[in-house]
Amino acid sequence: MVFSQVLDPAHSVFGSTLLALAPVIVLLLLLAVFRISAWQAVIVGALVTIALGVTVWHAPFAATAKAYGIGAGQGFWSVDWIVFWGVVIYNTLVVTGAFDVFKNWLIEQATADIRVQTLLIAWAFGALLEGLVGFGYPWAVVAPILIAFGIADLPALRVAALANNAPVSYGALGAPVLGLAAVTGLSATALSASIGKIVAVLALAPPWILLYLVSGKRGIKTGWPLALVGSFGYIIGQYPTSQYLGPYLPDVIGSLVCFAALLLLLKVWQPKETLGFGGVPIPSDRSPVADTPPRQTAPLRALLPFLILVIVVVAWTGPWSKLGNWTPFAPSVSARSSLGHTASAVTWKFAPFIAGTAILVSWLLILAYLRPRGDQLRRVFRSTFQQMWGALLVGPLIFGLAAVYNFSGIANSMANGFSHLGTWFVVLSPVLGWIAVALSGSNTSSNAVFGHFQYSVAQLIHAPVLLLPSLNSLGAEVGKPIAPQTASVGVATTKFVRDEGQVIRYNMGWTLVILAYLIGIGALFYFVLPQAMRI
């Protein structure tokens, strides 16, 4: 017998909505008030969700347990398998010295002007790190470089965090988009395209904000071409990649195109005055940092690994590739939806040759080129597990929770309650993503918890089905600068270690400004360009 979901177990829309919010409230309290680790909070949240699903929503226990297992498998294979090998590549570049060569080459390309340094390092280089690794690493790497350029510690962390806004939805080689596709049942290609359209508009703003933060109004007045080229350089690479090649490489290609565009601009145009931090004029011949390493005229050792990664992943995952289509098994558990009274299923289509496997192959080719020693490889895996074990646990745990949330009908009851807001939910949609990432620290986790719910509300209020899930991801993207888990990684290389609370408070105001801008973008697509968000 197929389980039929219950829509209103409390016999009151308001009461059922409050009950459906209980797992979310538990996560909020555990993470924000009791400050326990994310993986521990998610275990408790999962137990609460299972208990509510079985006792209040009357879901069969065996089917509920199966739904949890299917969700956990999705989380591991769709997220962990990608993130793990992405971090392995990053750590391999670090231990072999290739990453330092690349970083030093970037420093050499910069002038003494703080605006140029900020857009090359924080905006373009930060997007590259986000696309490859994510999880706060762009802050941790970029902030010390900015501090070396003369930016004070707190402002440097804020610049690194806000520069990271636009790229986050495609971070860790598209893990958040793939996670959103897994819980909504929507195509990853379609979600990549819809998110890419919103990101293309969102990305117009950060370079201007960054110029203002490091050099004030004076810096914008004399350096506006930098912001213009920085934003459009990223968009020119990011947008077509997100529309036609899927979610894996928009950040990587967007950042590389942005690099090229900014460096080309500097060949033909330079600001009339050279400004330091705060917009203070400085001699134009001052070197970016006093201890700049010897020039790397041909940093092939550093650039080729990125080129290998781009070529392999594009060839492997592009629309011309069929590697990801083979699914040797696809476990599933079905229910009758309480909203549409049609069949609803939690399914995991196990595809061995997805993007994570492509990244593994990229790493093997990078190994053949860099030829690290045995002790270096041991350091790579030791560092990766030390850095990632908590995040690797959260992935399967949160996706298992989300699967039960959806299968039992809890998500539909919450969607039914929030749908009574009607059009106003377009305003709330990105705010929920912002709140979720501020607590969980992960865009992927935010999408896992709220993705299906946002999709259901979109159907109930007859909004374009891709819009609300996409706004959830973008809201999470905007909230990353105040996410404790991300901030704890981001401050690891500064004097604010274990004092991320001060950094979060310092970042709060600007995240609210960008959130308001995102809400405006959501309204644009809802009222003016709805067709862009339809399948």
TrEMBL record:
Q: Note the superkingdom of the native organism.
A: Bacteria
Keyword flag Nuclease: no
Per UniProt, what is the membrane topology? Multi-pass membrane protein
What keywords tag this UniProt record? Cell membrane, Membrane, Transmembrane, Transmembrane helix, Transport
Annotated coiled-coil segments of the chain: none
Q: Which residues cross the membrane?
A: 12-34, 41-61, 81-102, 114-133, 139-161, 168-188, 194-215, 222-240, 252-269, 302-321, 350-370, 391-415, 421-441, 453-471, 508-529
Report the locations given in the UniProt record: Cell membrane
Show the Pfam families listed in the entry.
Lactate_perm
| InterPro entries linked | Lactate_perm
Q: Which GO terms label this protein's molecular function in UniProt?
A: lactate transmembrane transporter activity; solute:proton symporter activity
Q: Which GO terms describe its cellular component?
A: plasma membrane
Tell me the function of this protein: Uptake of L-lactate across the membrane. Can also transport D-lactate and glycolate.
Similarity field = Belongs to the lactate permease family.
Protein name, as recorded: L-lactate permease
Q: Which organism is it from?
A: Amycolatopsis echigonensis
